[in-house]
Each structure stands twice: as structure tokens, then as C-alpha cells.
Amino acid sequence: MKVLFVNKFFFPHGGAETVFLQEREMVKNTEGFEVIDFSMKHEKNLPSEQSEYFVDNVDYNNEHGLASKLKVSRDFIHNKQACEKFEQLIIDQKPEIVHFHNIYHQLTPSIIKIAKKHGCKTILTAHDYKVACPGYGCLIDGKVFDVKNINGSFVNLFKYQWHEGSWSKSFLMSCEAVFHALKKSYENIDTFVAPSAFMKSMIKTRLPDANVQVIVNGIDATTTEIGEDGGYFLYCGRLSPEKGVPTLAKAHSLMKANVPLKILGNGPVKELLEKEYPNVEMLGFLQGDELFNIIKNAKAVIVPSEWYENCSMSVIEAMSYGKPVIGGNIGGIPEQVLDGETGFLFEPGNAQELANKLDILASNPELVKKMGLKARERMVTKYSLEVHKRELIELYHSLAGK
């Protein structure tokens, strides 16, 4: 069976690319499957036999003149070159299934209809809320909102400046959303893959008739092991308000117990944290063995998000090392963290409640161990790459009628 994997970046770039490249490798190494690729040209790209079909690099962060801006805006909504090259690839390679990942803006959803035109079965993995919210994050001024507030009209996207507080960017997002709504681009997806039940509900809010299957993200369980309790709490990720990091720092200052808090990552609130919470150990950006050892030896990992996390890799990574997780009761986190069993949930933004949960684990090492073992067990049975692969291959066979 030929499966065409489509993603705008063909190198490790973010969470979407991590999953995309994992799946591509899994399918490539599965008997009876052949993988082909479609992406955007870039100097960091991994090798691909189909690189000649790749689209010219599009960078929306560069400065553009007026004529260039008009062309960039057009390609942002409908990339003609991507459509032409994608169609030629399908004609030449004849895939049975096309699996779309992160295609927005550079490749554009216009290519979905081309796959259907040539009789391919189509899948789109929703790594973010783009299908439900044209501005991706379901945020207004850093606060989450109910996508039902769109009330059937994308005009409100422009009205509320939902994208980076910019009128021009919000207007362009609105035009893009209206264009693909009129073209019914997403209606040409046979199956959406949602990494969480919460994501499924968000997709169904905008596309009530969509076929959505939940397949959670996974980690190779053979590459991790249960760590020790190193006596510190840990946060790993972007340092931004919607991630709840300021709430975590405040909660740490409210704790009765004296347990260190280590924070990994960079972002816009880093200077604020360093200034207002000098007792927090700021470790900056780490990767590789240094990063994994910090996670492996934490007492517990904190995921204090105040926005709609999908299927948090931070939670899964913590579970893989046998760590309890204290997470915000929002988005997909409650599906991952079993409250009172593999960790605790707390009201997002409630520093005192978070401090109370931190104190419970700080004073009860046996509970830390018990929850950690339960978390590791849950990760192996539900969030392993083996489970992910099995469910994905079953979906392919189901769509192909095999």
C-alpha cells in the first residue's frame, strides 16, 4: 500500500514534525507499505526520493515589498505551485492514501481536493486547532475562548483580532478561512485523526459531520525507564503566560514545604520570572541526555497550562520516566492525568490550589513512587509508539478496504 505523507516542513521543527516523522518512519518500516513524500524545499530537509516535487520555500517572516506581499498573501490562502506539483506527484506515484499533517499556509488545504479528485483516501492529523479556530490557538489576548463564539461566521476572527493582536494578520486569516469554507476543503477529508477526545470535540464543533478518530501521541517505551526522586519539581516547555508558568512560580512561593523548582525553556515571561521569583532555578533550553536526565530525576513534572493543550508530549514524557504529573484541568490534559492516581489536576490559574497539590507530593515520597509507577504503566499501555502504530495501520487498512 502506498501512503503519501504531506507536511510543510521535512525536518525536525516542532511537535507536529516530531509526530509526522515518527509516523513516516513507522509506516516505512512496516511490511506491505511504501512511503512517498510531499513537502517544502529547505536546506535542513531530510533526504527524500520525491524532493524534486517539493514546493519552493515560503517564509512569511521575511520582509516583503508591496508586490511581494500581495503574492505572499495569495499563496497563503491558495498556493498554485503546491497544487500543481502535488497533482503531478499523485499522477506519477499513484498513492492509495494521502496523510496530511501540518499543511497550512505554505502548502494550503487546497491540495486536499486534488487528492480526492484522483481517488485517494485522505487523512488529516489535527496537531493544533486550525480546523476549529482559524487563528490556531483559541486565544484572545492570551485567554482561551469557546469556538462556539464564532457563531457560524469567521468575520469575528477579524473583529476580535484573534491572531497575534494584528488587524492585518487577522484579516488574512479570515479570508483564508472563508475561502476554504466556501471551497469545502476540509469536507474532502475522509478521516480526521485527533490526538485527544477534546480535539475531536473541537473539530466536531466546526465540522459536525466529520469522521474523527482519536489516536493519541506516543513515545517509544523501550528508550525510557523509571527514574529516581531527585527532590525537585520540574517544568519543561515554552515560557509564556498561556502555559501557566507565572502561576506555577507563584504557587511555588506559596508552598509550605521547601522543595526546589526547576524551569526549563525560553519565552516571553523569562525575565519576569527571573525578577519576581529568584528562588526558582531557571535552566534555559536543554536537549539530549541533559534534558532527559533532568526529567528522569524529578520528583514530579508540572504542566500548568491555561490554554487548550491537545495531547501534551510533556505529560507523556514525564509518565515514561515514572513521574507523577500535576496538570491544569483544561483541554486534553484531564484525559492524560488520572486525578489522584497518576498525579493531580487543578483549576488553571489557581496558584493556591496548585501549591496545595505540590505540598501533598512534597510530604509524601511513597505517594510519589506509587503515582509514578501507575503513570509509567499507563504510558506503556496507552501512550506507547507500539499502540500508536497499531491504531494508525488499522486506520489505513480500514480506509483502503483491506
From TrEMBL:
Ranges for domain Glycosyltransferase subfamily 4-like N-terminal: 14-221
Pfam family, one: Glycos_transf_1
Gene3D superfamilies per UniProt: Glycogen Phosphorylase B
The Glycosyl transferase family domain, residue ranges: 226-378
SUPFAM superfamilies linked: UDP-Glycosyltransferase/glycogen phosphorylase
CDD domains recorded: GT4_PimA-like
Superkingdom of origin organism: Bacteria
PANTHER family according to UniProt: SULFOQUINOVOSYL TRANSFERASE SQD2, TRANSFERASE
Protein name: Glycosyltransferase family 1 protein
Lineage: Bacteria, Pseudomonadati, Pseudomonadota, Gammaproteobacteria, Vibrionales
